Amino acid sequence: MEAMPDLGGPVFYLPGPFEAINTRRVGTGPAIEEFVEVSPEADGAWTVRFRRAGNDAASVVGVRRLADGRPATEFLVDAQRNETAVFDPPLALVPRPGAALPATESADVRLYDGVWTPEEARAREPSERGTAERRFRGIEQASWSAEDDPRPAWTLHHDLVLVLSPARVRQRYESTAVPRLGIVDESLALRVSVFGVPVQRRREAVELTEIVVPRAEP
Known about the structure:
The protein is mostly beta strands and 218 residues long. It has one helix spanning 118-122; strands spanning 2-3, 18-26, 31-38, 45-52, 58-65, 71-78, 83-92, 100-101, 103-113, 128-146, 149-164, 167-178, 182-194, 197-213. Strands 2-3-4-5-6-7-9-10-11-12-13-14 form a twelve-stranded antiparallel β-barrel. Strand 12 (167-178) and strand 13 form a beta hairpin. The model has no long low-confidence stretch (mean pLDDT 90).
């Protein structure tokens, strides 16, 4: 089995302060400019905000550091769907260093109508309850080039599977990250099935195109 390497420091899902611009493509549609803002870490948590050009509504990923130091998804705010998902416990975003791959982490997930903080959401009745599973399929060394400046990188192959009876959502990711920059290139293949019958498929690709506020040197 492949093992998760010790990367010698964080590479994926880094705290800020950091601001950048991504290019996102959904299927064969036009490129969409997306503004990304990563907050500094405070009390073991930080947020990543995504806002599309021409749209003031921001989607948010709430990240919390686990006891072993790994980043994990605590909550997701989907601005397009006006929905908040809360994970209990926070769902790890990377496998444990040295873990044999494939490896799996799981959590309960609750969906709430509207945009809320985790504390606000937990005080309400969820619209749906289910389970979430992160499946780490493998990791490999890669390279990424910016302005003809190739840099060492890592590509993580992982799935997020949500079971919200009777629906099952699988998001298959290929995420490439560079030290100090975090994720610079990512592809997503989404499949939704109800009672085992596929009802939706979608592909997206995201690429870092401009750094607005770089991370400080460690």
